[in-house]
Design brief:
Porin, globular, about 200 residues, mainly beta
């Protein structure tokens, strides 16, 4: 019930914002979350995104654990592509586990919700999504892969639907690599590197 209440609260906030058309995740860039976190207490990362239309985005990201859940803070710059101007962007997202794999259901699931801002022009974006996937341990834990999907509804005055697809790759002793693709009311891809804190 708390999970549903949080989702309804964010949806209500989004409908009250009256912002312009949304284009992507919390900061307008095509990055998504695996259903389970790959770090212990915290991590630092950098994401390079190509959200379509010739645009490019670069963000720094910090994530920290909150018991079972975790949150992510992000900030950076996204150019508009072509003759469009760029903008500073910032946002925050929360990952809240809601499903655990079992003999009858093979995937983990987490509710992903957040709020972000693109400052020029001013636009507030509120995504709510469900990430479904499973972490696979290989070579006695030296390599892990987490493929996942994240269908997401994005509120920013109106609502848009985005289908996110991703794979997180971790090799012991190296930064994690996370690759995302997006389709639907937005498209594009991103590549991220993350280091555990």
């Amino acid at each position: 019930m708390a999970t549903l209440g949080a989702a309804l609260l964010f949806a209500g906030l989004a409908s009250a914002l009256g912002a312009e058309h949304a284009s992507a995740q919390a900061t307008g860039l095509p990055t998504f979350f695996a259903p389970t976190r790959a770090f212990g207490s915290s991590e630092l990362g950098v994401s390079l995104s190509r959200p379509g239309g010739g645009a490019t985005g670069l963000e720094g990201r910090f994530s920290a654990a909150l018991n079972r859940a975790d949150f992510s803070l992000r900030a950076g710059y996204a150019d508009g592509g072509g003759s469009n101007g760029g903008s500073a962007v910032a946002g925050a997202e929360v990952r809240l586990p809601v499903l655990g794999r079992s003999p009858t259901f093979p995937l983990d699931g987490a509710l992903i919700f957040g709020v972000g801002r693109s400052f020029d022009p001013g636009q507030t974006i509120v995504p709510i999504g469900l990430s479904l996937g499973r972490r696979l341990e290989l070579d006695r834990g030296a390599l892990h892969l987490t493929p996942y999907v994240q269908p997401t509804v994005i509120f920013a005055g109106s609502s848009d639907f985005v289908f996110g697809l991703g794979v997180d790759v971790g090799v012991r002793g190296l930064p994690d690599v996370r690759v995302n693709w997006a389709a639907g009311d937005m498209d594009g891809f991103s590549v991220s590197l993350f280091w555990p804190g």
